Amino acid sequence: MKQLTSLDLWANDIAEEDLDMLADLPHLEYLSVGGYSGQDKFTSKGVLPRLKKIGSLKRIWLDGISVSEEEQKDLEERYEYVRL
Fold first, then answer.
1. Whose CB has fewer CB within 10 Å in the chain, the N or C terminal residue?
2. How remote is the C-alpha of 81 from its chain's centroid?
3. DSSP structure string for 1-43
4. What is the pLDDT of residue 12?
5. In Å, how far from its chain's centre is CA 22?
6. Strands 6-10 and 30-34
7. Model pLDDT, residue 57
8. 69-78 helix and 44-52 helix, angle to the nearest 10 degrees
9. pLDDT in the model for residue 25
10. Going residue by residue through the chain (84 aa), what tens digit of pLDDT does each one get?
11. For residues 10, 11, 17 and 18, what is the CA-based torsion angle, rounded to 10 degrees?
12. What is the pTM of this model?
């Protein structure tokens, strides 16, 4: 799946650690991850460091993942599109 450019993992039965595999996708530009409002499976501390390892990532949608103002600012500086 090295050609994959977009991936939606919203409300799937995966763990934060599973996101580590995405760093091997050289063309992944968009990622949607998270779940329903109030979900506690994904956290900013678990997800954000993993996103940084995906070098090709440009656009993200973190649904139901709470981030601090500082984290949000960092995300907006790092990526061309951020939806929280």
1. N
2. 12
3. -TT--EEEEET-S--GGGGGGGGG-TT--EEEEE-STT--S--
4. 87
5. 10
6. parallel
7. 98
8. 20
9. 97
10. 899 999 999 888 899 999 999 999 999 999 999 988 878 889 999 999 999 999 999 999 999 999 999 999 999 999 999 999
11. -70
12. 0.92
Query: Residue 74 has which token pair?
Result: 């960092």
Helix/strand/coil for 46: helix
The full DSSP string for 64-83 is S----HHHHHHHHHH-SEEE
Say which amino acid occupies 5. T
Confidence at residue 80, expressed as pLDDT on a 0 to 100 scale: 98
Show the tokens assigned to 18.
């599973």
Both structure tokens of 39: 């979900």
Q: Measured between alpha carbons, how far is 80 from 20 in angstroms, rounded to an integer? A: 21
